[in-house]
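User: Working on a comparison across species. This one is Dihydrodipicolinate synthetase from Coriobacterium glomerans. Can you predict its structure so I can line it up against the others?
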Amino acid sequence: MSTFHGVIVPMVTPFKRDSAQSINFCAADQLIEKLIGSGVSGIFIFGSNGEFHLCSHEERIRFTKHVVQKVGGRLPVYVGTGACSTNEACNLSREAEALGADALSVVNPYFTQISDSEIVRYYERVAASVKIPIILYNIPKSTGMNLSAEVVSKIAPIENIKGIKDSSGNVENLAGYIEAAYGNDMDVLVGSDGKISKGYAMGATGAIAGTANLITDVVVGLFSALESGKTESAKMLQAEIEPLRDILHKGSTPAVLKRSLELAGIPVGPAREPVSDLSGFLDASIMSMLDHYGIEHI
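Assistant: Here's the predicted structure for Dihydrodipicolinate synthetase from Coriobacterium glomerans:
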């Protein structure tokens, strides 16, 4: 039985258009209800799309408390608690657990290039600080370091390490994780939305899919088709993610995704500075993309 399964959404953190770009809790509630209503398997806050690296410790705690209370046990809430500092990661993890998080996503330290043994020690310390499950998060384009399958095989036996999200986009890397997870109580989750079908065929149990913030029905439908063995339907739905993916790279993460949600009527606001506000810049292209999906826009 998988601990992590289905479509988990790395939810954007809504901000207001005020001088502080403060968190918009009302918009968060609107997005949460949309996601739950579309049948997602979990909500993950403070991932890359959640701009964890641009939020203060206090904001992360306050927003975690709000989301957990709003979701109210209707589905699991996962919280990103990784940090450059082991102590900070442990402190955030303990606080998120105390607030009711169902599991944690922990990215490896970034900026500083550390050794494999230091990565293992980092995860040992964070795992020991809490009792709830932990998902390792591999995103080498942002951390500057790829978690090797060899390192993952050393971390996998830790009792509450229950999953790994791979956003490398490298299928061989994903295969290495699936092999490392074999025999351990550990799930492998696809973090590259263009490879959900391929990852599922290899043995991944789910996807943490940023595109599901907007085209939730498409991504949930894709996973349902994969599980039902509806090959042609899955092929069509996998391809149907591409019009959104094609436009996301035209701005820094998650500016285009947030503007798309905003034009679709969910006022998640801009990405936080230093990422530029895209208001107006790509609107025509975004609205054309929304039209493709039949999503009403303002």
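For your comparison, note: The first strand starts at residue 6 and ends at 10.

User: Helpful, thanks.
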